[in-house]
Amino acid sequence: MIRKNLYGLVTSIVFLTSTVPSFSDIKIGILHSLSGTMAISETTLKDTMLMLIEKQNAKGGINGEKLVPVVVDPASDWPLFAEKARELLTVQEVDVMFGCWTSVSRKSVLPVIEELNGLLFYPVQYEGEESSKNVFYTGAAPNQQAIPATDYYLEELGVEKFALLGTDYVYPRTTNKILNQYLIDKGIPASDIFVNYTPFGHSDWSKIVADVVALGADGKKVGVISTINGDANIGFYKELAAAGISADDIPVVAFSVGEEELSGLDTANLVGHLAAWNYFQSAESDLNDAFIKDWKATMGDNRVTNDPMEAHVIGFEMYVKAVEKAGTTDVDAVRKAMYGLKVPNLTGGMAEMLPNHHLAKPVLIGEIQADGQFDIISQTSEVPGDAWTDYLAESKPLMSDWKDMGCGMYNTETKTCVQMKSNY
Amino acid sequence: MSFIKRNQSLNFVIFFFLFSLFVTIASELAMGLLSTSFVKVLGKTLMLCLAAIALDLVWGYCGILSLGHMAFFALGGYLIGMWLMYERTKEIVISAASEQLIPLTPEETKEAIGNQIFGVVGGSDIPIVWIFADSLIIHLLLIVIIPGLLALVFGWLAFRSRVTGVYLSILTQAMTLALSLYLFQNDSGLRGNNGLSGLQNIPGYGNLTQDVISVIFLWLSTFALCCGFYIASIITKSKLGNLLVGIRDDEARVRFLGYNVELYKLLIFVVTAVMAAIAGSLYYPQAGIVNPTELAPIASIYLAVWVSIGGRGKLIGAVLGAAFVSLISSFFTSGQIPNIDFWIININWVDWWLIILGLSFVSITLATQNGLFGLIEKVKERVINK
Amino acid sequence: MKTFFIFVGVMLFASASVASDKDLKEFILTNKASFHKSSSKTISPVIDSLLELNSGGTEKFLLSWLNKELWFRKSDGLVVTAKKLEKKSYKIFDVVDEQLIEVIDKKKIKQIKPNSGVRAIISSALVQFQLLNADPSIRSKTLDSIARKPEEKFRVPLRKAIEIENNLKIKNRMIRLEKLLTVRFEKNISKRVEVIRSLKNDLGIDVRGVLNQIIRTALKAEKVIPDNINISQILEPETGAIDQYDFSETNHSSSIEGSFTDLDAYLMLVKEGKAPEILTQKKLKDILTQQAEIGNIKREEAHSLDSYQKRIRVLNRLIKNEKVEPVVSIEDMKNIVSQYVFYEEYAESSREVTNSATETLNVINGRVSVFSFIDLILEGLSLASIYFLAAIGLAITFGVMRVINMAHGEFIMMGAYSGYVVQLFVTNYTLSILIAIPVAFLVTFFAGIVMERLVIKKLYKRPLETLLATFGISIALQQLAKIIFGTQARPLTSPEWLDGALIFNEIISISWIRVAIFVLSIAFTIILIYVLNRTRFGLETRAVTQNPSMAASMGVNPDQINMFTFGLGSGIAGIAGVGIGLYAKVTSELGNDYIVQSFMTVVVGGVGSIWGTLAGATLIGFLQKVIEWFNPSNTLAAQTYMIIFIIIFIQFRPRGIVALRGRAAGD
Fold this sequence. Notes:
Chain B is mostly helical. Chain B is 72% helix and 3% strand. Chain B has one domain (2-385).
């Protein structure tokens, strides 16, 4: 009896999972969590992808072939990301995936896509120190977000003392490690850099905010660099507002707070605090206006757009162009076609895919406004993304060039390729 | 039917042997009916079944509802993961250095490994807990020793002060929460939130492809599960098993009979913790990554729910529950079932699955004390009686 | 002096000098590029010459620049002000005489957005115009700008302003600011010292800032200490660190925090170029690789260099054969360090000033640490009240009824979402919160009753299974919330009177929301204790708790009592949800964050007693704050240690702090 049950179940799953759809379509895997803690951010990206695919199909697909999205839910469960990626590549036989948000989910997927030679477009700003042959990083590397923001602090605001607040995970840890070294190189003594890590979803911020205020006791201008993630920001900003900290006294620049996060907050008391991204909804360009209009038409008027969405827009556009150029969806051919491709940014200018699989994109710094949007006060020209940071001794000699050298971790000192697979 | 009862464990072994054989034949190695990722899912499911057996022993038979057994499970994964990760990285480092004029000193090798493993989480030194990471044998022993020791200390503290019932459940939950919060810290030396990843590659066998590895692990898992089941059924049939049931039903009475209740409880707690750890050490190389979310309290609650749905107090029930619920969960969340548009209601299975799952816990708990297995038995009895 | 005259001139003739409008126009036109994209590094000279120009329109121009009202025409860069006409077209006006220039398409103009560094400079430039403004709020803002950018030129006008200021609050602030400027810039030492000493009772962070700036020191190394310098202390490097130095490290860094070792001293000399660099492993390997490449080391030998000792041996040989430069040895390092004196020199040259600043700071810091401790207590109290609020509903259902409700966290969440929904309909925040509290109570009260009737009632005899069943409900409710409200966090905004903080002094302050939560938990305690101890319902509840069958035989309906008690516990969780939502966030996972914590609170406090829960929450709240205080850079560790503490605590008091005696404690 039991045996039959189990057997029946197993066979039914087998047949359901191994059904093969028609071959003439181009299948696009979408690997974003739709449930669990990360659903808050990732669902939006899934919707963005579906919208982009629909639009492309309306234009006639790619080379006359229809695009078919294959959505799976890795449920914010990191091992499940690997499992679902494998499923997408082998069972669904997709060539390309758009997905992941957290670094750990990317690290979970890496070995799978490198083994099976899949392609992943990763749309979120991240800590760098990685370059995989099979990943295109369309989000910002530290030198496209953290370093320019720190420069802004040092040069424009004259900040002399830094509080690096972050959630305890890899992105803040690595970013802060890079910033720490960068600040020391710029002549800020180590004693003037205060670092604090809090757990995910932390809500009790009063002590930490008080500690930051107390940093000003030696008469130096204090600035906060926040890599606080997700929901925890809400409590942090509420406490900041309650403590009456004006952005003119202690500015806060955040790398993980965008329009989406601010929509859960009343920003009236946060006006003037900063965020650094490669995209803000308030960017003025025709492309952006059109994109926002499409998005609101699909998702509703009160929805906002944000930086990772733009990353997907650019990534998708590039993929479409690369497939058109290569005439096939074959991973190696598409990858070769990607290098040097240029696609317009929503903020104006052109994003270019570099041989190290990162983009050249402009860096924007925005001030929070009362309506939950950002006022862009600084916009650089395109900054090329750097896979290996120049500010840490151990990564300085490393470089990535998949186009000519075919190596993602090339040591320029010893002139050897450290490894072909990436670090995970 | 009566044959099953007489020689349950032999049947169990035969069934799972045939099952693995079938999967091997159907896998990409031979017929290609089953994808490698599905073989991995099956292998992992077997290990969840083993964890469920462990929990069933301690809960179904001894009445201790531990909401912390997934902590031992994940610890097992961490301990094997450290070795896997260290050795794999060592291979990379050594092969990269082989082109240089001057070879690496042992210290330089270590440093390079540290940079590789901890570079991604903002560190570079190898923490002290990795001291034995280059020895497989020691780490295999540690899989037994460390979770066993943790269970021993925790169990001794808990049982000694006669914490029982729901208090104990909450205390075990606190234990796994504390451990997961500890591992979440980057300073814990186990790569914080990232955990250990890339575990699916077996060092020294770099040219083995995943379709082979998945089948190897399937057989290892089958072997472990059968051993676990055999040991568990020996325990339950022995005098110890009777005592455990006695403790479950009336702890005070067993104590008055002169038995050292605490000792037996501690014994079964430690044995099942080790069992869970072994299950974990085979699970995570198939999953590929182990990290602190794996030992969040919710994971252990899920385990308890599987056992409860399958039918606690019956080893087969636990296996059935774990296999059934975890497989059906992955089926429903795969996003491959067409959504249902019914009038104005749009049922998206990915969204609604958790609600269905939650409500089915409730209804199964309300309907029967013995879970699905109990239901099956009931139906069987009726059929036979008729 | 010149600035002073200009200043007075501006004060007296501000409204009269219309004549120079043209110059202003001219000036803006010639400097247009610096306005388009300004940087705080380069803008100061422009603003200075703008002030020197001394035109009547300067203030207005600076103000509109500050408020981001300036635009420029892309075609010729003309700086203008703009007014939105309709969707895509703007009217643009001359900045100075406000004449309409043209109606223009939005795409052809661009808004000028000075960054906050530039804005600070503009505000600072505006001080001279606005210090005597009729509007007290503008005067107050002007003082903010002075405080942010203290400059010597503000001293005289500030003194003048103090004389005519009639708003006492602003006047006091002005006096204080003037003192700070005196401390900073006064040339007369005795006057400066006098003012410094008078600041003893001021806890302000700006005061400490100014004083700390005075006693700032720089670490220096010289062979002989120069004369006539103000030295804080001479440092004697601790010996031994160089001897123990591990050359195999790639990055050398100072050994022990807070101490100054000979290694630190040496590294400092290296940095200043006064000593040769240390030979690290990496450098050693680089030298050897280079030597191997040019053939000074044979290939086979190079391949055998797999230890530090072997490499050093080869290096020494190469040095002996004069193939490589000699490297610095441990003896050399120690020798070099001993040739130098290390001392900390004050930036401030007057000894009297630094001494008085140090003394005053010591007094202030002493008081600050006392107040910080009080603040810590307040924060502990606040955290305790949050935990209490989250746990009190559980204390009733779990403590009084022995029912484990894993869905308790979801009731908190439901309460928070009820608040959000109420705010969707009632836009007045005060009113909406007043409505939200009873609504949240009713919603969760009925949800609780429904759950009790359908599920829990049937499982009273099986407590472990209640746990699982309620867990099932918990995940279903969580997912349901996600489907209804989406995954984004929803805003639950507090009324304006709860904005900001209750400020006792510069150190002790607590946000009003936390105060409100504290008051809420006090109110709950009183109400619950009253209900349980003084009402018929409470009496019956206690009776059912202690012995249901006996209570039943005395005419109490245990079934009904259980139902209402469960409803009450759930309802309170709902109100707690409104409070927690106000202070943190409203997401579907809100309850998850509090559930384990709440169980701990109840277990530590002692099951079945409101007082116990109170004690448990207090203990946990304070403990967490104290651990955080010891280890401020890692909040995560604090939570781990706290849970370990709780596990150990239960060893000693298995029944919690407030243990029930008698039959109720029986099971």
